[in-house]
């Protein structure tokens, strides 16, 4: 037996080395666990070498043992596989196709915009006298080319449901009984009874904004991804939030949202979109916000032209005028929060329209 004890001791040392070694090399926990599992597997094999030989099976007992072994293995595989989120290759393919379709349509729209612009130049060269008149006539054509491609067939709510699928919210949430096998996040069937479109938008772009009651632990651990504000367009987050706001099934066990109170007294958030005169979002635009008395801060718009700036404004700054500017365009608002209210988030939505960047 001392041989087995020795082997177990060696395996423990190896397992520790595998765990801490791979940890030091920066492997994710899943991989660390896998390496340790390999060591354990090796241990089992070496222990089996010490085991007394089994009685030889023959005839029907052998066949039954083989089938039994096969059934146990299958049960482990099937059971293991079905406890993970399900991926249907066809569904995944469909999603990729949808993304590509939008991209292609956008590329086409851009192409036709370029064509329209070239045509404009030609016309302008032809006759500089009628320049202004012709520009007026061609501008609407360019605007049409820019309109979001082929959504004609979908209603806003249908499009929102599609966005929900595209961004795989179902990995953690359930709607209509479908989605997350494990209970990672709350059921959303009644979320429309609790939250407005704007609150849902805020939650998607900033998961710390509120949390579902009973999910305090998950919220603290930041389980809901904080990546959507970098990925979603304004159209996507708006249709998605609109879709979710229509879900009002009072029999569903959707937990009540709790707005996060902490830090309310520490700051003030300004957020919104920066667009050019034709309504096009301007990504990567620097935005500055400066309160009348206090320190300013700046931020940059994301892909969707969305920005968020956190200002250190305290109770005594209530009523201060804040100036927000981008590319020389300025707007002001009064931050008139109630200093005694320590629950409501202090924030202001402010969109800017700036001249299109040159070039
Ligand atoms: C990796 C898991 C995960 C993904 C993916 C995820 N969420 Fe969540 N979500 C959570 C968890 C956990 C909570 C509860 C804790 C909290 O509110 O922070 C939550 C809470 C919510 C709530 C508040 C629900 C309530 O009852 O108050 C909404 C709304 C929500 N998520 C919407 C979405 C949308 C829309 C998407 C897709 C764009 C999404 N979530 C993707 C994990 C996820």
Provide a descriptive summary of the structure in words:
The protein is 46% helix and 15% strand. The protein is α+β, with helices and mostly antiparallel strands and 359 residues long. It folds into 4 domains: 1-50; 94-146, no CATH class; 156-259, Cupredoxins -  blue copper proteins (Immunoglobulin-like, Sandwich), CATH 2.60.40; 264-354, Sandwich (Immunoglobulin-like). The longest helix has 38 residues, at 89-126. It binds heme C (HEC). The site of heme C (HEC) has 26 residues, from helix 7, strand 3 and helix 8. Residues 167, 169, 171-173, 184-186, 191, 200, 203-204, 207, 211-212, 215, 218-219, 223-225, 228, 240, 254-255, 257 line the site of heme C.
Largest sheet: 4 strands, mixed
The fraction of residues in strands falls at: 15-25%
What's the CATH class of the largest domain, please?
A: Mainly Beta
| CATH architectural category of the largest domain | Sandwich
CATH topology title of the largest domain: Immunoglobulin-like
* Distinct ligand kinds: heme C
Low-confidence stretches: 141-147
Name the CATH superfamily assignment of the largest domain.
Cupredoxins -  blue copper proteins
Question: What global shape is seen?
Answer: elongated
The count of DSSP E runs of length 2 or more, i.e. the number of strands, is 12
Give me the secondary-structure category: alpha+beta
Gyration radius over CA: 30 Å
Summary keywords:
about 350 residues, alpha+beta, Immunoglobulin-like, four-stranded mixed sheet, four-stranded antiparallel sheet, 10 helices, binds heme C
